[in-house]
Amino acid sequence: MNTASCPVSGAGLGLRRSFMDEFMTLDHKPADFLEVAPENWMNLGGALGKKFSQVVERYPMVCHGLSLSIGSPAPLDEHFLIQLKKFLDTHNIACYSEHLSYCSDDGHLYDLMPIPFTEEAVIHTAKRIQRVQDILERRIVMENVSYYAAPGQEITEIDFLNAVVEQADCDLLLDVNNIYVNSINHNYDAESYMKSVDSKRIAYIHIAGHYDEADDLKVDTHGADIIDPVWQLLEKTYQYHGVVPTLLERDFNIPSVSALIEEVDQIKHYQAQAEQEHANVATA
Asked: pTM for the full model?
């Protein structure tokens, strides 16, 4: 686990405006850290800007971007990166993660498209990540993404992921639900994939629910409760890589705050269980 790029711990929650006010009135802290998309909060003043500052004062914060488009053939938006750096510096946010995908060319595509799994794309993407890190003056954290087609594929998904992270010398946001979804959609073993990433590169973990389109087609929606096979894969991830900070994502069909807290508590349960198991092994 790499704490340098993401100095948080425990169980986190993706903060959404729809429940932000209720969440912040709680007299306890049900999550150990929070995550927001910086694009939704940059350059905001007024009441919303003040609310965000209050959240950052109370909770450790990480940022998970939406528009970096790291695999795009179009030039990097360096103006955006300069504004992003100001935002991260202003709020003292050390951790910035993004998707290992692209979402723009001449214009915005409004979706996260898969980067071709090729050696050429590895080199192209790694160089762009290095440039981002130079501008932000931070190690960044790249997420393995869900995808539904692999045009031009020459190497496996896991080999592509590991090669990009290694060549760019960045860290990894390991999305456990994406591993599960992709393993069903592309017929590979989820546990083998999980074991193939470098423990030292993992900064934090995402976990979420998805939609069952069919037995052999799962859609990564972040719009449902987490299912048992995904919880089980998270357990195995802790067993293999150690207990890593883990964040619940919920973007659609958002339930009550109490229901969200129940899933955050479930993360804490699995983390405590894994820590106890590691302790037992160490003293045996």
From this structure: 0.94
Catalogue all structural domains in the chain, each as residue range(s) with its CATH number: 11-283 (3.20.20.150)
Count of CB atoms within 10 A of residue 4's CB? Answer: 11
Strand 141-143 relative to strand 108-113: parallel, antiparallel, unpaired? unpaired
Percent over 90 (pLDDT), the chain:
78
Q: In the numeric block, which tokens belong to residue 112?
A: 């996260």
* DSSP-assigned beta bridge partners for residue 98: 142
* 104 has pLDDT over 50: no
pLDDT at 105: 53
> Would you call 142 helix, strand, or coil by DSSP?
strand
By C-alpha distance, which of 139, 201, 202, 207 is closest to 177?
Answer: 207
Query: E strands of the chain, at which residues?
Result: 11-14, 33-36, 61-64, 96-99, 102-104, 108-113, 141-143, 171-175, 202-207, 211-214, 217-219, 246-248
- Taking the C-alpha atoms of residue 160 and residue 145, their distance in angstroms, rounded to an integer, is 12
Q: Whose CA is closest to 166, among 116, 126, 217? A: 126
Closest CA to 88 of 153, 47, 139, 122: 139
Average pLDDT taken over every residue of the chain = 93
